[in-house]
UniProtKB/TrEMBL annotation:
Keywords annotated in UniProt: Oxidoreductase
A Pfam family it matches: adh_short_C2
Residue ranges with Polar residues bias: 1-11
PANTHER family associated with the record: EG:BACR7A4.14 PROTEIN-RELATED (PTHR43975:SF2), ZGC:101858 (PTHR43975)
Family matches, as InterPro entries: NAD(P)-bd_dom_sf, SDR_fam
Entry keyword Hydrolase: no
Molecular-function GO term, any one: oxidoreductase activity
Domain of life of the source: Bacteria
Name of this chain's protein: SDR family NAD(P)-dependent oxidoreductase
Keyword Glycoprotein in annotation: no
Region of interest called Disordered, as start-end residue ranges on this chain: 1-20
Length: 265
């Protein structure tokens, strides 16, 4: 096998073969771009999402590389074991886990319900913890060292209207990122996170916002982003690929904003 000489160096080392990368929430937005970026770089990607069709579309896109769609709800019982088993069955290994899947509600304090709180906590926090736990045995044996990448949000560091519960779940994921980095260093596993700001994804539609509210939200976001625009999912994906690469072998415990300067403005 020819050694990977791509700038990121994330796909393989000599004799190791391509890395296997699990990406959750891979059907749309940042997850889809991340699955495609890792696959284009030579990794075998296990693309996980609730809906089968978007996953198949991502896998079939030209230049996508090797993507294996796995339709699964990460909050379902036994889903973590099933996802890890899918990776091991496909390639016999698991090198990188990207915890990207998340949900955001449209409620604010005064309108929360127990069910709405549980929905966000379970999807954004409990599910990534349980999936990471299930992946640990395989990550510990990754030839180049395992990598766990969590997708947080710039909202964890700077409040944006109507997103406090979502931000709280992501803030907790950032605490876990730092804690896991310390706990797993002796196992050769690195842990890092990215904190995207305003990114061009379907999250507004998923929240049930109509076109007028989405436009108002975008205007507000751009006004609070020094670079004066929303980001592209591919810009977040490229950072994730770099964090997983050998070039970042001395990077762990970091939460890296990818937000056009929003958290420092």
């Amino acid at each position: 096998m020819t050694e990977n000489t791509s700038p990121s160096g994330s796909a393989s080392r000599p004799g190791d073969g391509p890395r296997t990368v699990v990406v959750t929430g891979a059907g749309t937005g940042i997850g889809r771009a991340t699955a495609r970026a890792f696959a284009a770089n030579g990794s075998h990607v296990i693309a996980v999402g609730r809906r089968a069709e978007p996953l198949r579309e991502a896998a079939a896109e030209p230049g996508s590389g090797t993507i294996t769609p796995v339709s699964a709800d990460i909050t379902a019982p036994h889903a973590p074991d099933r996802i890890v088993e899918a990776a091991l069955q496909a390639t016999g290994r698991l090198d990188v886990l990207v915890n990207n899947a998340a949900v955001v509600g449209d409620e604010s304090l005064g309108g929360y319900t127990p069910a709405g709180i549980e929905w966000q906590l379970t999807t954004n926090l409990t599910a990534p913890v349980l999936l990471t736990q299930a992946a640990l045995p395989a990550l510990r044996t990754a030839p180049a060292g395992g990598v766990i990448l969590n997708v947080s949000t710039a909202l964890g560091q700077r409040a944006w209207p109507g997103n406090s519960l979502y931000a709280a779940t992501k803030g907790a994921l950032e605490v876990l990122t730092r804690g896991w980095a310390v706990d797993l260093a002796a196992d050769g596993i690195r842990v890092a996170a990215v904190a995207p700001g305003a990114i061009d994804t379907p999250i507004g539609e998923h929240r049930g916002l109509d076109a007028e509210r989405r436009a108002a939200l975008r205007k507000w976001q751009i006004g609070h982003t020094p670079l004066g625009r929303v980001g592209r999912p591919e810009e977040v994906a490229s950072v994730l690929v770099q964090l997983a690469s050998d070039k970042a072998a001395f990077v762990t415990g970091v939460v890296l904003p990818v937000d056009g300067g929003a958290v420092v403005a």
